[in-house]
Design a protein that fits this description.
single chain, 79 residues, alpha+beta, two-stranded antiparallel sheet, 2 helices, 15% strand
């Protein structure tokens, strides 16, 4: 998770307040890790939304719905 957190810290300002790095030797509860997962997930969703708005996302799907993902070279591919 820390690799994702570090990536987000380089993309989003003030995320340190919401997403400090996990301590490697500390025991976390499932609830604590779920909270981290939720912040990471919503942050990547927001970054994908920015890519969509700037024409840098590709849609996959059909008439029932579409999922948008960053073009190769954006967000996930740089991790």
């Amino acid at each position: 998770m820390n690799k994702l957190i570090i990536y987000l810290k380089n993309k989003l300002i003030n995320i340190d307040d919401f997403l400090p790095l996990l301590e490697l030797n500390k025991k976390y509860t499932g609830g604590q890790l779920k909270a981290y997962e939720d912040v990471i997930d919503s942050s990547f969703c927001a970054l994908t939304g920015v890519d969509y708005m700037n024409g840098r996302a590709v849609g996959y799907g059909g008439l029932d719905g579409t999922i948008w993902v960053p073009e190769k070279g954006n967000i996930v591919y740089k991790l």
